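Give me a protein, keeping tokens residue-aligned:
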Amino acid sequence: MNPLADLGLSGYEEQAYRALLTTGAASARTVAERSGVPDGRIYDVLNGLVARGLVSTQAGDPRQYTPVEPTAAIDQLLSERVAEIEAAEARYRQLAAQARSTLAPTPPVDAGVWLADLGDEDATVLAGEQISATDERFVMAVGPPYVGAPQNQYRSEITAFIESVPTEITVDLLLDHTIVDDLSTELETLRQVGADITIRHTPQVTVTFDVVDSEAAYIDVPQPFGSGQRFGFLEVRDSLVAARLERGFDAVWQTATPVPL
């Protein structure tokens, strides 16, 4: 195992940097002699180290190269790798959201109904698919069947939702006032997504539903004979129905209590 290689230094870069630590300021020819880096490669190697902030130069004839302190060099290499990992994570999250969309469950041809309890696989996929398909505004009222259900029963839905929120949309969440404290950790995570997110709470939510871009609505159907359980979803792709739900949402939203983010 070579830690410097794992942190992103090539073999020639490591040889040149180590040579400079022993010589101090030195010309390219001296670095090549001390490090064993071929003369035909030494300038590319040194220029690469300069570009990465690991070596500085002083004008002269010949030009002199000076290494930064090892601690500063390691911190620089670490920051580069962390930035690469963060960029890769963002890319893979985007791919995961796209994959969820392509794998979303398809309702029967003659109906817009899914049978899915809280936390079921189809429900988890649909939670991500609904929000990732939004282009402008996503509104959601959260009440029964989530009210009274243990959070671990539907945590997978929350995770899929948060991971799939596009950064360029507006999200308005209206929560039943009894579940705000239970979701404090998830709301804090949601705050970091970067979208325009506003959350309020009210005692007036009697059913869970969401509206996507004023065009499609998804309505949760609680189990008729049990609290904290879901029978399934109704999907309504009708702009008139979606608009009516959204108007009702907006009316309650005006008097609901803001949840600070």
The chain has two domains: 1-102, 107-258. The two ends are 44 Å apart (CA to CA). The longest strand covers residues 170-176.
